[in-house]
Amino acid sequence: MDDIVKQALAKWPNVPSCTGWLMLDRRGNWRMRDEAAQASGSPGTPIRHEALLGFINRNYGADEHGQWFFQNGPQRVYVELGYTPWVVRLSANADGTLALQDQAGGAFEPAAAFIDEEGGILFADNADNAARPRVAVLHDHDLEMFSNHATLAEDSMSGEFHWNDQAVLPLQAIRRGEVAMRFGFEPSPAAKV
Fold it and tell me: Organism's domain of life (predicted)?
């Protein structure tokens, strides 16, 4: 969290939080959702300002209830999630090894791989041996690269992902509707704030 945010929280500790105004979409884009977007259920307008994106990413976190938020100075802005709290991109390094990077620019080291009934690929890590692993959906533009490093069973709901020749991650089936409960996050915190 940025120092300026910590200072604002100390100075104004009781600013009410807000919901519905910020969304992380299925492709890892931050979106502003004005009243019209909220009323129509649309994802809103993508944020393109690099400094603002950096500020959001540095001050993104979750509360004890698995509700993800952006700490905007003294105000907590709860985030609507298009799918998972993290979206990762898969790339190959110059030496041919694979890398996963989350929407905030951080490395993501997979410990498990999943496939949902819509063909979405998810990864879970075990960062810092946390009680709840982070879960991230793979950006759909990277599905071809994923398939080049995976062996899928005929049912397309199982198989394995070959992660850098060191690890083979079994590809486990998961229902999209079960992801939030299994990984302990709230995709739409508006009702619980």
Answer: Bacteria
Cα–Cα nearest to 134, from 81, 188, 75, 78:
81
Residue 25 domain boundaries: 3-83+185-192
pTM: predicted TM-score of the whole model, two decimal places? 0.88
- CATH for 22: 3.10.540
Number of helices (H), then strands (E), in the chain: 5, 14
DSSP symbols for 115-171: E-TTS-EEEE--GGG-SS--EEEEPGGGHHHHHHTEEE-TTSS-EEEEETTTEEEEE
Task: Report yes or no: 171 and 113 within 8 Å, Cβ to Cβ.
Answer: yes
Position 32 scores a pLDDT of 96
Domain identity same for 46 and 96: no
8 A C-beta contact, residue 108 and residue 100: yes
What are the tens digits of pLDDT across the range 91-114?
999 998 999 999 999 999 999 999
Based on its alpha-carbon atoms, the radius of gyration of the chain, rounded to whole angstroms, reads 18
Q: Please tell me whether residues 104 and 164 are part of one structural domain.
A: yes
Contact 118, 176 (CB under 8 A): yes
Same domain, 24 and 62: yes
* Confidence grade of residue 192 (pLDDT, cut at 50, 70, 90): very low
